[in-house]
Specification:
heterotrimer; A alpha/beta (254); B mainly alpha (282); C mainly alpha (222); B: 282 residues; mainly alpha; Four Helix Bundle (Hemerythrin (Met), subunit A); elongated; C: 222 residues; 8 helices; 84% helix
C-alpha cells in the first residue's frame, strides 16, 4: 500500500512554519447550489488536499451526487465559496470541466456505437491521446472481443467499465466517482480500487461516493458525511457517527 | 397571498394576512391608464359607429378597420417588445425585462387573435368569404403561431431558469422570424399576381374624419396595451416572486434533514451545539 | 471549433450508419408522404403534377422533423449531456457538427425524394443550377434552425410535441421560398427563382449564427 499523502487539516490553514501548504484541490465554504429552486447543497464546507482519496457517504437524497457534480463545474453555485483546482466555480465553472473526470449514474455512452467508438470519441473530444484510450480499454477489461460490440448489447457492468474507460483516458486531475462499485463484479471492483490508488499515486485526487462501505472505507483516506445538503469531515479514528438512514452496524474503523 | 388583477383599473380587496404583500396589481398609474383607455374606447366607438361616414366601396364594413388595424399594430409592437425584452434578458440577466417579454407576448397573442377575428368579420361582407390567402392575413396567422410557440416554451412545466432562458431564445428570434415570414409571404402573394384584395382601406382613400378615427384608434389601443401590459407584468412578477421566496425556507428545511441549525449560510453564526437528535428520525 | 464539428458530425453519421434509422425509417416515411398525397389529391386530375414542388418540400419538411428528432434522441442517454459539457468540445462545434450531420442526411433524402417524385409524379427536371442551389441553401437553413430549436427542446419531456410546434412556423419561409424556386426552375423561368435563393440564404445565415451563439447556453441545465 502506498504511503498516504498528508491530508490538509479540516477547514483551516495549517501554517506552522516551513514550506507553505499546497492550496487545497477542493475548497467549499458555505456553498449553496441550486437545482432549479431546490437547494441541493445548503451550505457545504469541504477541503480536500491533493492526492487524497475522499469518501462521501450519506443517506439517499443527502446531496452526494450534487457535491460531485458541483465539483465538476456542472451545477451553479449561488452562494458561498467554491474553488476547485484553483478555479473559482462561482464565476467561471466552465474552466474546471476539462480537468476533472466524472463517473455519474448514467453511462453517457451512445448505445448504437461500439465500445471502441465510444471511448475513442470521448477521448478525442477531450484531446486525449489515442494510446491512452486504448490503454484505458485494456485496463478496464473491455478490450479484445468487446471492443466492437455495440454498447447497447453490453451488460450493466460492462457499460460501467466502458464509462470508466472514457474517464481513465482523460487522465483527469480530479476524479469524481459516483458509486463506482455499483453494478460491477468483484473483479471490476478490484480494478476500480487499483485505478484509484494508481491515480492518487500519480498525483490526482479522488472524491467518491459509495454505499459499499466496507471496500470504500479501506480505500479512503478521508471520510465525509453528507446530509441535508451539507458536509462534515469526519475525524479519523475509532469514533463512528451514526447517520440518518444507516442501518445499525457495529462500529467499524476506517 | 392573494393578487387581484382587475379589469377595471385595480380595485383593491381587503388586506391579505401579510401587510407587505400586495393585494392587487393596481396603482395610480394603471388607474389613470385604465380610465383613459375606457374613455378612449367610448369615444372610438362613437367615432367608429356613428360619426364617421361609410366608405364608398365597402359600406359599413369599413368600420371594423378602426379596431382591426390598431390591433394589428399593437400585435406587432408587442412582438417587438418581446424580442427586445428577451435580448436584454439574455444580455444582462435582467428578470424585469424577461417578464416584460412574457407579458408582451401574451398581449400580442391576444391582439393577434383580435386582428384575425376582426379581419375575418371584415372579410365576410367585403369579399364574401371569411378567409383569403393574402399577404397580410397570412402573415398575421403565422405571427399568431410563432407567438403560441413562444408561450408554449415559456409555460413549460419546468423551473423558472430553464423556462426563461429557452423562452428568451425563442423570443429573441421571434421578431426576425416575423420579418422573414412577412417578407416571404408578401413576395409570394404579390409576385404571384393574386388579387391583392386587401390593398384598399388604407393610404390615399382614407381622409378626413376617417383618418382621424384611425389615428385615434392607434392611440386608444396604445393606451389599452400599456395598461394591460403593466397589469400582466405585475402579475407575472408576483407569480415568480411567490416561487422564489421559498428559498431561505427551503435551505432551512434542507439543513434540518441533517439536524443542523437552519441558519442561512451567509451568517457566520456557529451551529448550536446539541442540535436536535437525529438518531431517532426515520 | 471546426475540428470539434467534424468530430461530432463524424460520430453522428457513424451512428446513423450503424443503426440505419434514417435509411430504414425516415426515407420510407418520405415516400409514404408522397404516396399519401396521391391518395388525397386524385392522381388523374393533374393536381399532383402542378403541385409537385410544394408536395416535395412538404415531404422534405416532415421527414426533416423526424431526422431532427432522431438527432436529439441519440443524445438523450442519461449522463450524455453532462459528458458533452465536460468533454471540452466547443459548443459551437457541437452545433455545427450536429447540423452538418442532419444536413447530410437531408441531402441524401432529398435526392431520393427527387427520384421518387420523378417516378410517381412524372416530373421533368429542368433548371438544374437553380434546383441544386435551392436544395443546398434550404437544407442548410432547415438543419441549422432545426438543430437550434432541437437543443432547446432537448432534455424536456415534451420534446416530441414541442419541436414541431416551434419549427414549422419558423420554417414556413423556407417552404415558401424553396417551393417557388422549384416552380421557377421547372417552368423554365429561373430568373423568378433566384431572388428566393437570397431569402433562403439569409435564413440559413441567421440560424447558423444563432445556433453557434445559442447552443452553448442551451446545453447548460438552466
Amino acid at each position: 500500500m502506498e504511503p498516504s499523502h498528508h491530508p490538509e487539516p479540516a477547514g483551516s490553514s495549517s501554517g506552522t512554519g516551513g514550506r507553505p501548504p499546497e492550496p487545497p484541490v477542493v475548497h467549499l465554504r458555505r456553498a449553496v447550489a441550486l437545482l432549479g429552486d431546490f437547494p441541493a447543497l445548503a451550505g457545504a464546507d469541504l477541503d480536500v488536499g491533493r492526492g487524497e482519496i475522499v469518501l462521501l457517504r450519506g443517506a439517499n437524497g443527502a446531496g452526494k451526487t450534487t457535491v460531485l457534480r458541483t465539483l465538476a463545474g456542472l451545477v451553479r453555485v449561488s452562494e458561498g465559496e467554491a474553488t476547485v483546482l484553483g478555479v473559482d466555480l462561482v464565476t467561471d465553472r466552465n474552466a474546471v470541466r476539462h480537468r476533472v473526470g466524472l463517473l455519474g449514474h448514467g453511462t453517457g455512452l451512445y448505445e448504437e456505437l461500439t465500445v471502441a467508438d465510444n471511448v475513442r470519441f470521448w477521448a478525442r473530444a477531450c484531446r486525449a491521446r489515442p494510446e491512452d484510450a486504448d490503454a484505458a480499454m485494456a485496463r478496464l477489461g473491455v478490450d479484445g472481443r468487446l471492443r466492437n460490440v455495440a454498447v447497447g448489447r453490453l451488460s450493466t457492468g460492462q457499460r460501467r467499465r466502458t464509462s470508466l474507460a472514457c474517464l481513465v483516458a482523460r487522465r483527469p486531475e480530479l476524479w469524481l466517482l459516483d458509486e463506482p462499485h455499483a453494478g460491477l463484479d468483484q473483479e471490476g471492483r478490484d480494478v476500480v480500487d487499483s485505478l484509484v490508488r494508481d491515480a492518487t499515486a500519480a498525483g490526482a485526487t479522488v472524491v467518491m461516493s459509495s454505499h459499499e462501505l466496507d471496500r470504500a472505507l479501506s480505500l479512503a483516506d478521508v471520510v465525509v458525511t453528507v446530509a441535508g445538503g451539507t458536509t462534515r469531515r469526519e475525524q479519523p479514528g475509532p469514533v463512528v457517527v451514526p447517520m440518518i438512514g444507516d442501518p445499525q452496524e457495529a462500529p467499524d474503523v476506517a | 397571498m392573494t393578487t387581484h388583477s382587475s379589469a377595471t383599473g385595480g380595485r383593491t380587496v381587503p388586506a391579505a394576512p401579510s401587510p407587505a404583500a400586495p393585494t392587487s396589481t393596481g396603482s395610480p398609474a394603471t388607474r389613470l391608464l385604465g380610465i383613459a383607455s375606457l374613455v378612449g374606447v367610448a369615444v372610438l366607438v362613437a367615432l367608429g359607429l356613428w360619426l364617421t361616414p361609410d366608405d364608398v366601396v365597402q359600406g359599413d364594413a369599413v368600420r371594423i378597420l378602426y379596431i382591426h388595424v390598431p390591433s394589428a399594430t399593437m400585435a406587432y409592437t408587442g412582438c417587438f417588445l418581446t424580442t427586445l425584452g428577451s435580448a436584454i434578458f439574455l444580455w444582462k440577466r435582467s428578470k424585469w425585462w424577461e417578464l416584460v417579454a412574457y407579458a408582451s407576448a401574451e398581449l400580442a397573442a391576444v391582439f393577434t387573435a383580435v386582428t384575425l377575428a376582426t379581419g375575418m368579420l371584415w372579410g365576410r361582407p367585403t369579399w364574401g368569404v371569411f378567409w383569403v390567402w393574402d399577404a397580410r392575413l397570412t402573415s398575421t396567422a403565422m405571427l399568431f403561431l410563432l407567438l403560441l410557440g413562444y408561450l408554449a416554451v415559456r409555460r413549460l412545466p419546468a423551473d423558472y431558469t430553464v423556462r426563461a432562458k429557452r423562452a428568451a431564445i425563442v423570443g429573441l428570434l421571434l421578431f426576425p422570424n416575423v420579418l422573414i415570414v412577412r417578407q416571404s409571404v408578401e413576395w409570394w402573394r404579390t409576385l404571384h399576381q393574386e388579387a391583392s384584395l386587401f390593398n384598399n382601406g388604407l393610404g390615399a382613400t382614407i381622409e378626413g374624419l376617417m383618418l382621424f378615427g384611425l389615428f385615434f384608434g392607434f392611440v386608444v389601443f396604445g393606451l389599452i396595451f400599456a395598461w394591460l401590459l403593466i397589469h400582466r407584468f405585475r402579475l407575472a412578477w408576483l407569480e415568480e416572486k411567490v416561487a422564489g421566496q421559498g428559498l431561505h425556507a427551503a435551505i432551512a428545511e434542507r439543513r434540518a434533514e441533517a439536524g443542523l441549525d437552519p441558519a442561512p449560510p451567509p451568517t457566520p453564526a456557529p451551529s448550536r451545539p446539541g442540535a436536535p437528535t437525529d438518531q431517532t428520525r426515520a | 471549433m471546426w475540428r470539434d464539428a467534424l468530430l461530432v458530425a463524424g460520430k453522428d453519421l457513424r451512428l446513423e450508419w450503424r443503426s440505419r434509422v434514417a435509411l430504414n425509417q425516415v426515407v420510407p416515411f418520405a415516400m409514404l408522404v408522397l404516396i399519401v398525397f396521391a391518395f388525397a389529391l386524385d392522381p388523374d386530375r393533374g393536381v399532383l403534377e402542378r403541385a409537385t414542388p410544394g408536395l416535395y418540400w412538404v415531404a422534405v419538411l416532415f421527414s426533416g422533423l423526424l431526422a431532427l428528432q432522431r438527432s436529439f434522441t441519440i443524445e438523450a442517454v442519461d449522463g450524455n449531456r453532462d459528458s458533452l459539457r465536460l468533454s471540452g468540445l466547443d459548443p459551437a462545434g457541437i452545433f455545427l457538427g450536429k447540423a452538418m450531420a442532419v444536413g447530410v442526411q437531408l441531402l441524401v433524402l432529398e435526392v431520393l425524394l427527387g427520384i421518387g417524385v420523378a417516378l410517381l409524379y412524372t416530373t421533368q427536371f429542368r433548371g438544374w443550377a437553380l434546383l441544386v442551389a435551392t436544395v443546398v441553401v434550404a437544407t442548410a437553413g432547415i438543419a441549422a434552425a432545426g438543430t437550434l430549436y432541437g437543443v432547446l427542446a432537448a432534455g424536456l419531456r415534451v420534446r416530441e410535441t414541442l419541436l414541431p410546434l416551434l419549427l414549422l412556423p419558423v420554417l414556413a419561409p423556407v417552404l415558401i421560398g424553396s417551393t417557388r424556386a422549384f416552380e421557377a426552375a421547372l417552368a423554365d423561368a429561373p430568373a423568378d427563382g433566384w431572388p428566393w435563393i437570397g431569402l433562403l440564404a439569409v435564413f440559413a445565415v441567421l440560424y447558423t449564427v444563432a445556433g453557434v451563439l445559442g447552443f452553448g447556453p442551451l446545453l447548460e441545465e438552466s
